[in-house]
Amino acid sequence: MRRLVAIxxxxxxxxxxxxxxxxxxxxxxxxxxRVVDLLQAQTRGDERAxxxxxxxxxxxxxxxxVVRANARNLRGPGKVEIVAYDSETSHALGAARGPTRVxxxxxxxxxxxxxxxxxxxxxxxxxxxxxxTGLSExxxxxxxx
Length: 145
Fold this sequence. Notes:
Blueprint: H1 2-44, H2 47-53, H3 61-73, E1 81-87, E2 96-106, E3 109-121, E4 129-135
Antiparallel strand pairs: 1-2, 2-3, 3-4
């Protein structure tokens, strides 16, 4: 009987850890997917999609100005390829907010560095939510966000 209880408890702990790990990994993927979607809209020159992807951007004239300039200046053919991705909200188990430094390129463009502001809410039990709240103009290749 004790052996059966030990097996059931061990299995329950294993399942709980697997669920927490799966939710945590899904937040990591959701953040990266949102950032890539934003950068891809930028290279298409799609201001409307960019404004839709950045929460609250339309209410901030500076944000709208950056989006318009980026859509105009960074437009180009090809799929966005992430060269480096450094997120301050990465690995957060709960709510977090901070910049993500992204180095990206397309086949016809040298690497470009930008900062994307990200906000995570929720936790591994309730389920994480990821929102993009800002985007910078290109920064120097060695600069931090």
